[in-house]
Design goal:
about 170 residues, alpha+beta, Glutaredoxin, 6 helices, about 15% strand
Length: about 170
């Protein structure tokens, strides 16, 4: 009976560990959530991550050129929904997104970043306006028109192409 209880507890623990991702993770108690609207400079000061530069990421010159040809930096707005407590997807992906947008010509501090609580809420409720379910998510707007919503999770190998597709419509 005792062995059965230990096996059941171990199996439960294994299942829990295998199903956690930043899409659903509200259980990481080691990082306090920063919540609200931020610039990239503010995010870097408060998120508590080890790296914000994505040194291993170098987007292709052809991608940068294509994005520059299709994006009007003066009118297109990028909004990023993320969480500093999301170490699996947001921590590696948000610096890559910011690096790409900077190479395209954006001032990183002109990009709106919404930090979400563990239950995926933020005071402005912009998350509800864009129906955000996962982090990080990039929303691309031209004025009031939403051109695209890209979930840039670490396992999404097509996020760059999805951004290009959204701005090339």
């Amino acid at each position: 009976m005792k062995l059965r209880r230990i096996l059941l507890s171990t199996l439960t623990l294994i299942i829990m560990c295998c199903t956690i991702s930043c899409s659903d993770d509200t259980t990481n108690p080691t990082t306090d959530a920063i919540v609200g609207k931020f610039t990239w400079s503010q995010w870097m000061q408060q998120a508590g991550w080890a790296n914000y530069t994505a040194p291993e990421y170098t987007p292709a010159d052809s991608l940068i050129s294509a994005l520059q040809a299709n994006i009007d930096v003066a009118t297109y707005q990028f909004i990023i929904f993320g969480s500093n407590w999301c170490h699996v997807d947001c921590e590696p992906m948000m610096p890559k997104i910011m690096k790409l947008l900077e190479l395209v010509g954006y001032d990183k501090d002109s990009i709106a970043i919404y930090g979400l609580s563990r239950d995926k809420k933020e005071p402005a409720d912009a998350i509800a306006a864009f129906n955000i379910k996962y982090v990080p998510t990039v929303v691309i707007c031209n004025g009031a028109d939403v051109l695209g919503t890209i979930v840039a999770e670490s396992d999404n190998k097509n996020w760059e192409q999805q951004i290009l597709d959204a701005v090339s419509k």
